[in-house]
UniProtKB/TrEMBL annotation:
Span of domain HTH arsR-type: 1-90
Lineage, uppermost ranks: Bacteria, Pseudomonadati, Pseudomonadota, Gammaproteobacteria, Kangiellales
Name of the protein this chain belongs to: Transcriptional regulator
Record keyword Methyltransferase present: no
Domain of life: Bacteria
Signal peptide residue numbers: none
Keywords (A to Z) from UniProt: Arsenical resistance, DNA-binding, Transcription, Transcription regulation
SUPFAM superfamilies: Winged helix' DNA-binding domain
GO biological processes: response to arsenic-containing substance
SMART domains (alphabetical): HTH_ARSR
CDD domains given in the database record: HTH_ARSR (cd00090)
Length: 112
């Protein structure tokens, strides 16, 4: 289980915060979707995702060549509550990134 100090440390980084809010909003995203949404390099996004996975904040699922990231199902209720409150309060902050995601061509689909 993640400690509160570890979660807040994760959230203090802007890229990790936006990544977690996007994942919470969309339920599941792959690296290419996050790079498109955030307009960040693949290595940078992957590095942050690896940190989040190592802390147990996100989990992965592989489907064909895609690896999808979602919030870890074992994340505590208080941690989910923090993310939900932050998403509700900051949804306008991620709207540009949601727009980037919506405009993405050839977006991978979990159902292909």
């Amino acid at each position: 289980m993640i400690k509160s100090t570890e979660l807040f440390k994760c959230l203090s980084d802007e890229t990790r915060l936006k990544t977690l809010l996007l994942i919470r909003h969309e339920k599941e995203l792959c690296v290419c979707e996050l790079t498109e949404a955030l307009q960040e390099s693949q290595p940078k996004v992957s590095r942050h995702l690896a940190q989040l996975k190592n802390l147990g904040v996100v989990a992965t699922r592989r489907q064909r060549q895609w690896i999808y990231y979602r919030l870890n199902e074992e994340l505590s209720d208080w941690a989910l509550s923090v993310l939900d409150v932050t998403l509700t309060a900051q949804e306008n902050m991620i709207q540009t990134y949601l727009d980037n995601l919506a405009a993405m061509e050839n977006r991978p689909s979990c159902c292909d």
